[in-house]
Amino acid sequence: MLLEIAVFNYHSAEIAIKAGADRLELCMNYLSGGITPSYGLMKVIKEKINIPVYVMIRPRSGNFVYSNTEFEIMKQDILIAKQLGFEGVVLGLLKKNNTVDVERTKQLVTLANPMQVTFHRAFDDTSNQIEALEDIINCGCKRILTSGKAATAIQGKAIIKQLVTQAKKRIIILAGGGIRSNNIAELKKSTKAKEFHSAAISANELADAKEIQKIKILL
User: Fold this and answer.
1) Nearest Cα to 113, choosing from 86, 73, 92, 131?
2) All domains of the chain in start order, with CATH
3) pLDDT tens for residues 75-110?
4) Which of 130, 75, 126 is CA-nearest to residue 101?
5) Is the Cβ–Cβ distance between 150 and 114 less than 8 Å?
C-alpha cells in the first residue's frame, strides 16, 4: 500500500517525509484545491527531498476547461518539472461537455515523458466515469486520483471499487478526498485500492505528522 501526501509548502514536505509518506504531490494554495507551485519551491524541493514528488500542473483554480494560453502555460510548467528531474506531474483537462480532453491530454503526457502522469480529480467532474477511465488509459496516464465522484472518498467508495475493477491493472486508481486515519481502514477494505492520497492537513494548513503516521500504520 502506498500513501501519497499533498503538500503546499516546504515545511509540510519535511513533515510528511519524516512521518513516513511514500510520495508527495506538490502544490500551492490549499484553499483553491491546489495550483502549480512556484519555480523556487519546485527547485528547493527537488534539491532537498529524496522521495518521489509529483508536481501539480494547474494554472488556476476553478474548472478544468482551459484556454489555448492556459494550455501553453501548462506545457511550460511541465517542461520546468521535467528539467528539474521530478518523477511525475498531476493534471486534468476537460471539454465543455465534461468529457476528457483526450487530444490535449495526450499531448501533455507525451511532453511529460519519462515522467509519469496522474489525472487528478477533474475526473470526478466527468459526465461518465466509465468512458472517462478508458479515455484516460488511452491517453497514457499512469493513475487517476478520484473520490469516486463524491465529495469524499468514503462517500464514493462504491464507485472507487468499480473503477478498480474496471481498470484491471491497466491504470492505478489513487483514492483521495477527505482521507484520514478514521476512515482509511474502511476504504482499504471496501475499495481494494492500492494507493491512497491525503493532505492530512492540520488547522494551520501544515501536514499533520501524527495523522500521517496513523494512516501509515493502518495501511
Assistant:
1) 86
2) 2-218 (3.20.20.380)
3) 999 999 999 999 999 999 999 999 999 999 999 999
4) 126
5) no
